[in-house]
Amino acid sequence: MPHLFYGKLKDGEIVLDEHETQHLKVVRIKENEEILVTDGEGKLYRCRVLKIGKDESIVRVVESKEKREKILPLTLCIASQRWERLRWLLEKAVELGMARLLIYKPNRGRSYADKLDKLNLVIRNAAKQCARCHFPELVVLDNFDLPVEPSRTFVLHRSGEPLTISRAKYFNNIVVGPEGDFTDVELNVLRSKYTLFSLGETIFRFETAALLVMGLMYFLNDPLEEG
């Protein structure tokens, strides 16, 4: 499969930043060769490389099209956790086509409010790896106030009622908690606003629980078969 690059179209040309320029060099693309570029918003461009510089490169659009992909109309709300595990979950959420990723800060979490560039780069690289042209929206909060509709939101927690397929399909926001669980105060707030669901007696790591539910929702939502 051809490598996919990222950039924004302007006047028929696209400037590739230092990360994409490094990618060009790693895979040994030369000037005048053709590559595929996405804008992260659904467009796929076939481009000819005009210039490969030290920190940026320029390509000219030869052909463009809208790429049709399976995007889940869902928001995954992730408690900020240790970087390696958070990055892994972000990558899987991108691969499965989540529409929005929301990282919030619970009491037992760390702030990623100043790491937007780093987080967006993870999303970009994950999307390129699986040839996705629609990047999920990223929201990073430094608090516990989730901008989601309570009636369409469920929280994964072992104290909740068993999650069933018939119930899951009516929700479009999923909240996964921190590694060390919510505090009692946080749990009371969540219970007062959202539905809590359990995945059974097995205690999953937060990223495993999220992956399991995203897989379920992937098969419950199939936009490609609509219309």
Overview of the structural elements:
With 227 residues, the chain is of the alpha/beta class. It has six helices and twelve strands. It has two domains: 4-66, Hypothetical PUA domain-like, domain 1 (Ribosomal Protein L25, Chain P), CATH 2.40.240; 72-225, SPOUT methyltransferase, trefoil knot domain (Alpha/beta knot), CATH 3.40.1280.10. The chain has helices at residues 18-26, 83-95, 116-129, 165-168, 184-193, 206-220, and strands at residues 4-6, 8-10, 13-16, 34-38, 43-52, 57-66, 72-79, 98-104, 137-140, 153-162, 173-176, 195-198. α2 crosses α3 and α2 runs parallel beside α6 (206-220).
Overall average residue pLDDT:
93
Largest beta sheet, briefly? 6 strands, mixed
**Basic shape:** elongated
CATH architecture of the largest domain: 3-Layer(aba) Sandwich
> Count the helices. How many?
6
Low-confidence stretches: none
Describe the strand arrangement of the main beta sheet, using strand numbers. Answer: 1-4-5-6-3-2
Name the descriptors:
227 residues, Ribosomal Protein L25, Chain P, Alpha/beta knot, six-stranded mixed beta sheet, 6 helices, 12 strands, elongated
Task: Please summarize what this structure is.
This protein is of the alpha/beta class. Helices cover 29% and strands 32% of the residues.
